[in-house]
Structures are given as structure tokens and as C-alpha cells.
Amino acid sequence: MEETEESNNRSKKCNSKPTSVNGCANNNNNNPHPHSNSNNNRYIAFGFRSNQNQYQTYPALLPLPPAIPMQVAVAPPFPQNHNFTSTTLLQNQPFLATPSDSKLRYFTASKVVQRQNDVSKQKDLLRVKNATTPESFVVARRPDSGGVEGQVISLLANHFLVKFDPLHKIFHYDVEISPHPSKEVARLIKQKLVEEHSAVLSGALPVFDGGRTIYSPIEFQNNKIECYISLPIPSSGNKLQIEGQQIKLFRVNIKLISKFDGKELSSYLNREGDGWSPLPQEYLHALEVVLRESPTDKCITAGRSFYSSCMGGEKDIGGGAVALRGFFQSLRPTQQGLALNVDFSVTAFHESIGVIPYLEKRLDFLRGISQRKTRGLTNEEKKEVEKALKNIRVFVCHRETVQRYRICSLTEEVTENLCFQDRDGKILRIVNYFKDHYNYDIQYRNLPCLQISRSKPCYLPMELCMICEGQKFLGKLSDDQTARILKMGCQRPRERKAIIDGIVTGSVGPTSGNHARDFKLQISREMTPLYGRILQPPKLKLGDRGLVRDLIPSRHDRQWNLLDSHVFEGTRVERWALMSFGGTSDQKSNIPKFINQLCQRCEQLGIFLNKNTVLNPQFEPMHLLNNVKHLETKLKKLHGASFSNLQLVICVMEKKHKGYADLKRIAETNIGVVTQCCLYPNLGKHSSQFLANLALKINAKVGGCTVALYSSLPSQIPRLFKHDGPVIFMGADVTHPHPLDDSSPSVAAVVGNVNWPAANKYVSRMRSQTHRQEIIQDLSTMIGEILDDFYEELLKLPERIIFFRDGVSETQFLKVLKEELQAIRVACSRFPGYKPPITFVVVQKRHHTRLFPCELDPSSTRNQFFNENIAPGTVVDSVITHPREFDFYLCSHWGVKGTSRPIHYHVLWDENQFTSDELQKLVYNLCYTFVRCTKPISLVPPAYYAHLAAYRGRLYLERSDSATLTRSSNITRPAPPKTTPLPKLTENIKKLMFYC
Which of 14, 208, 872, 874 has a beta carbon 3.0–4.6 Å from 285's, enabling a disulfide? Predict the structure, then answer.
């Protein structure tokens, strides 16, 4: 699915060059990927060099009991081009048993976890944690000059080369404006400053970051400047009356902070010097501000993106929202040099209309309120209105003013009963005040007013307020709104490429204006040409009536079908039930036919689904999903009818319902049964594909698998993997609450495979954690539990850990690596003598790099294919990637709609010493083993499963029964709420892939 705009764009200012681990984490903001013109790769040092003798030594290990062998996995010798600041980073001392532990003759993984929780052993654990904490980290560098496997193809990337003059100085000034203005007003002040005080500024056209920083291409006359700027903005203080207009005075103080040039950046990009110097963030940030100056003046800014009605106008997408076209831009250091990544984007904004018409469009229960002006709001309706309006900026239409107000809440009283105290202490009714002062009769007297101040009463009647334009729609979009947004942003490759080319050279794009020229920047108007490689698809292993059948996906989209094949491992579902929620009488009458068709389709796929349910289909009204207690009673009744041994409940719903969350939570945490939901409209289509998809999901949830790699991973990468040396692939993700939710916890999930060498069955662990906390707080415990499960299945601990971490922005790389790598090591240290080599890979979906087929010969007969997406297996690890670190772009799927988005894999730590070819091939092959479909997916499965598991944990926190979740409507809280823990999964469920 094509993502139209990132919901979590971050844009921070870098003020100084990093000199330590913390400094680097804080300053690695806008510039993800550095650059080089050489083929020799070096490390980037994120911090200080390690000391050789930083770790403590301990007595020798006690021998382990022979029944359960556990060996310390030793990494193979490092290639010659691999150097580390300290070998101790990879040779930490393992967990050591003390003499008092000699009684541990019979030893299991679970006992070690219990032992860790024992108060008497906390000192030992702390000792290990300290012993395995490196002083600094060096992010893994590229192990070679890039991969060589696969067919070479010509591509274009939406990166535009930016050349700079390393000798040109940039002057950094701090600007202090008093009284403190909004960003919009601050930009107006900067414009007036340039217009009215050009001489003081030496005729320069400086650029402004909207905060406290101004960059100038030449030095001002004085290092300190003080001046006054007047703007027509009404305010209670410092007002002058000029020709009937209120004027506000601002004092502007400017002082020189530093001067710097691009020599360090040039050296970094050319890999001169010692190779350990960090990326010069200050200079790069200044260039970023320069390139954003012109678009910022001409467009609506949202994160790193810009939107303008001149790019095709706005489109009404319903629900009080409109969609605007725009573009994303970000300056990135790459192997070819500095490059500007430009991409087309679409996002939703609040429609600039009156508050009453807005609510009429946004909320179903207020439809037609303009004809029912005496209508009031129930308590529940009032909460919904307040939720819809909170933090939206409005302006009033009963008087002329440019002032804007932010909605904080709604008044407790309706407008009819609302009073306030004027400056003389006199109590006035709102309705009388507006009649006397503005000759306006308030119409909607039974609605509350808008409260626009957090600290004092300040009321505005809804009907006199208009929504300010240019405000990004942060509410959850409906399915219809999402579909319309996606349709606007869904262009085939040729069309998207043309749009991006037009943006770069357009009147509001990054090359518009004169600022780049003043700062000696040259921006290419052509996309970056480069070579990619198409990896070969793996041979797959399917079932064929108890036999094994091999298959190579040879179609252009790499999809295969199961028309004459079985799933690799089919399961038997003997005891199952069906529940219906809602539906018309005709729809319900199709249930017996549906059961028969599903059983037949399962049989064709090698899956046994008993044609007889444990009870007759249960037909329930839709509103049962609103009542948690009754829903739980019904499910327990079904479970009891199967002697508490029910394997599956298929739930057929009339439509999507918020009670879906309660259904999943009750079934998986209270009862212990797998559920599979589907919608009545899909049943009526009698689609074989729908039945097959349903069967595959059911099979995966109850313990089967769809496909396996014919050539096992040990045979593909024998240098690292062995048949008798199991490896675990782990995925981790954190899902955060909705942007308007300021209290709900975040949910972290970790998954790991528990079979080898197939490596296609994953168990999961989920935890709630602090609101919007990105670092996984309970990672070591979750990994320890998964290692327990792995050991229980294979009677061995994994010899290697490959950890795929989803959802990490580049500014968080070092922090996540430092804390989560340590958590993985602590989890391993619970098992005496166990220290497997770890590879830590960040997986990024939300980026804006796009790859297009290179149209070398427009008259070619093959020109018809240039509008197609790049082929599955296309990998790029040169030109647009990081010059020193180990990263690559892989498009493992076929883009059916729009333009494919490759996944960016960035290796932060690699003790397993993968080559580029090995890791790229491994990731691509794993993408064929996803259990829910018969085609390669876009994201490596461990990361995908972690995302699904985290989403399931999010569902556990949602409640449809309003009595179970009451939120305070207060604007301020004395302290953040305590994190609500997730309910525990039942023992039988936690071993299954129930989250698929």
C-alpha cells in the first residue's frame, strides 16, 4: 500500500558537532546517509574509542550437564577489511557460574529465567550487565564493495545531486524576538527585517529556521544587532494605533554565534583524514535550512513536507477533510555526494469552513444540525465533539482580526446559560454580550462554547468560528477517506517520476528562489542514474498429498498458486465453531454453503477442517459486540461445548466493528482459542481466492505453515549456518497511540522463530510501555522468554541471533542500538556461558527513496515496460546508500498499484560478519516464507510479524464497552498515567501465530 505521508515526521535542529555517544545521538538528525566518492569504505565512529582492558575477568566456567549441551557460539575469523576500535566489543565475558552454583546438575532455560528473578542472584546479573556494557559503539561498516549476485539493471533514483563550495563560509546568528511570536509571525518578522534593515544585514538574504537561528552567506556589519519591527497584529501589549490599525512592536536581537565552512563535510564525503570523524551536522543542517527557505515561504509546511494548492488544488475527501498535493525533501549524504531526496506526497488537512458545518461533516450524529438549531449534546456526544475539535486553530468572523485561537476544550455549560465577568467585574451573559456589542443573535444556544484558554475563562460561540486553513488532519481517517487519499497519491512509476521532476524545477520547489545560489549551492535537475541487481527467486518447498514438491516462482510478479499443490504443512482442525454477528436473513442462509465451500477449499490445500462444527452455527445480533460481559459468556459457552478443547472460532460479521478488539482479547487472553474473522459481503462473492486466503490464515494460526525454502538456509550460507547449529531470526516493533492520544501506552512486540532450518514459525511476546517510548523497555525479558520457547522446541539455544528492528528513525539509531543490543546480551547472559554473535538490522519502511526503470532509449520497443515497477528482488547498495555503513535498498515484492517502495535495511551491528550478498540473499529469501500469501512480501517476515503482534497488543488495550474505559477530559494532568499492562496470553495461544 502506497504511503502518502509520514505521520511521524521529525525535524530537529543540530547546533553543534557531536563529540561523544550522546552528542552523536542527539545531533544525527536530518541527515541519514553520508557519502563518498571512493570505493574504500571506512567506519563512522559514533563516540570514543574503546579501551582494551575495559572488561573484568572471572573464574573459569563450570561444565554444563551433558544432557543439555550449550556451547558458546564463536564468530568466524574476521575478514581482513574488518577493523574494530576494540576487539573486546565482540569478546565480552560470558555469564559465569560461581562455586555456589555447582549444584545446578539439571538445568533448563526456564529455570535460568526464574533464577534471574531470584533476589539473591541480582548481584550476579548486575555484574554481568556491567561486564558486557561497551563504552562506545561503532556502527557496522560495509564489509565489501557491495554485492555482485543478480542481473545488473539500470535505474533512476529520486535523489538530486547537490554540489557545494567547501571554502564558502556560512555565518550562524542567534535571533531573539520579544515578545515571543508564533512561527508564522516570526517568519513575517524575518521578512520585514530583510526589507527594512538591508544595510545592517550587509544586503544579505539570510535564511531562517523558524526558531532562533539565522544563517547568512555573508557577515553582517555588526556581530550584535538590535532593532524593532512592527506588525499589524492585535495584542494586549505594546500596541500602537496607526491609521485605524493596531500595530504590535517586536524587539529583535541578533548576535553572531559561529562561522563555519564545508571543509569538514568535504573531507567526510571524500573520506579524507582518519576516517573516524563524525558527520559535520552543523554545516549539513545549515544547507538543509537554505534549501527549505523558498518552499517554506510559498507552501504549507508539515514536517519535512510542503503542500500547495498550486500543485493541483485541494480535493474534498469527506468528513471535514480535504487532501492537498505536495512534496517531501531531505538532504542526504550518499556515496555520490550530497543529494536532495525529493518525493511526491499527499496528505489530509482540515477543511477551512465554519465550526458548525465542519462538525456536521465530521460527526454522523450531528448531520442536519443546521436545521435543528435547538439541539443539544449528550455527555457522550460532547466528548466526541471535544475530541474532534481539540487543538484545532480557529479565527472569528464577527469582527475583523488576524488573530488565531487554539481550541482547548468545550465549556461545561451551554451557551444559553454561560456568563463571564468583564473588566469592571460585571457579570454578563454571552448571548446578551454578542447582541449588545455585535448586534448578533446567537442561534445555537444549546451547544457549548469553545474554550480557548487553558488558564482563564475565554469563550467563543461555535457558530462564529472558522477553521484556519493549512492544518494537518491528525484524526483517524475513515476507510473512505483513506481510499481517496491513496487514489490521489497512487501513480505509476512514469507518472510519479514526471511529477517529481516537475517539483524540482517548479515555482515552489527546492530550486525556486535565489537562496541556493547565494550559498554557492548547485542542485542537479536530473535524477540519479545508478545500477541495481535483480536477485534470483529461491526454489520453494510445497506439499503434494504427503509428498514434497518443489517450485520456482517464475512469473514476473514472483507469485505462485496452490491450484495443484498443498501447503507445506497442513494442520487438522477437529473442533471448531462458527459465530455470526448481524447479517440479513439471506446472508445468514448462506452460512451452511460457506462452511461446505471452506472445508472443500481447505481439503484442496492439504488442510483438514472438520465439516461438522461442535455446535450449530451461533447467530448473534451485532450489538453483542458492544457488551463485553455477554460476549465473553457466549465464547465460554462455545468453549465448554468442546470440553474446553476448542481449536478455532470463525466469526462472520455484518461489518467492521470496534468490538473486534474485545473479541480478540477475550478469546486469546481469557479463554485460549484462536479466532478467524471475516465479513458477510466477502462470503457472498463465492471467491476461490477469498476462501484460499482464509484457509491459509487458519492453517498458520493453528500451527501449520504455507511454504518452506527448498534449499535450506544452511545449504545457502554454509559459511555461517549449519543444520545442527540453529539460528533465530527475531523481529521487534513498537506501535504508538494515535497522534491525538496523549496518554495511552505504546506497545512493543518481539517475535522469533522456534524451528530450524525451515525458520518459518514464530512465537511472540508483547508488552505495553511508557507513552511514546521508542526504546523497548522490557526487551531482555521478552527475548529471554522467546529463547526459552526456542530451547523447548529444539533442545538447543540458537547459535546466532539475527535481529530485525522496525520503526526506528535515523536520529534514534545509536540510542536504540546501544540500549537494545545491551538488552539482548543481558537476556543471553541468563544462560551460563551463552554468548551468541548478534546481527542488529534496522528495517525502514517510511522513507521517500523511489527507484524507477531507466528509460535509455525512448523509441525502444521495450518502452512499454518503463511504466512498470521494478522487479521483485531488485537490490541497490551503491551510489544512493551510506558511503561507510552497511545498508541497502531491497524491493522484494511486485508493486500492483502505484510506485513500489523498496525497504531500507541498515545494519547497525554485525558480529556474524555477513557479506553483502549473503545478507541480501537471506532477507530476500525469507520474504517468500510469509504464511498469509503465495508471493514474496515487501518486508522481511520477522519485522512484519512483529508489526502484526504489536498491533494485536494495541487491540488488547482498546475497549468498546464505555464503562470499562473512562478518560478524563481535563486539559492538564499532575502526572502521566500509569502504563496499563497487557493481559497475559493463555499458555496454548502464546505458542501459536495467532496474530497473523
Answer: 14
